[in-house]
DoxX family protein
Amino acid sequence: MESFPARVVRSSRRRADLFARAYQRVAPGVLRVSVGMLYLWFGLPKFFPGASPAEDLASRCMSLMTFDAVPPGVSRFLLALMEVSIGIGLVTGLLLRLTLAVFFVHMTGVFATLVLLPHDVWTNGVPPVPTLEGQYILKNIVLIVACLTVATRGARPAAEPGPDPGPVTSAGPTLPVGKAPDEPQGPVTRSRIAGELRGRFAA
């Protein structure tokens, strides 16, 4: 008779397997919506001056990338609009390919801050340690991996080349020369050879 602890363990494993199979079917959608909600959460405050703690760093980085062609107020608004648009696209799933393309462009600009503003995102030392702003940027690695999973959902793996089947040959047995396909194939005897020879010479 199975003990009570063993029944509990077996039941827990069965429920964990059921949950895992059910979650695997919805995992890309959960990742997509969760990243979209984060973008909305981080993007909406940037519409209001001083509401986002990252707006100063983001505005200065955008000014460097545009060679001061875009004023800080305009860059803050454009950045907020981009992040909110990405968030809406991920949450709703509308224009998903375009949304993911804009997302990866945005991530390129975000990680450019690590190079363009090193004194703001790294502390002195070997190896360098990220500041609070640097940690805010590096955590986006998780978002990139999540969106890569969403972008590659349903992609078919490339078919592996199989073994060379060799030259194609005609199917079926090889017929003797001068023998029609529908003629019966029987054993070769002396009487059969003699009959064939007489028929040929008679013709």
DSSP finds eight helices and two strands in the chain. Residues 65 and 109 are 8 Å apart (CA to CA).
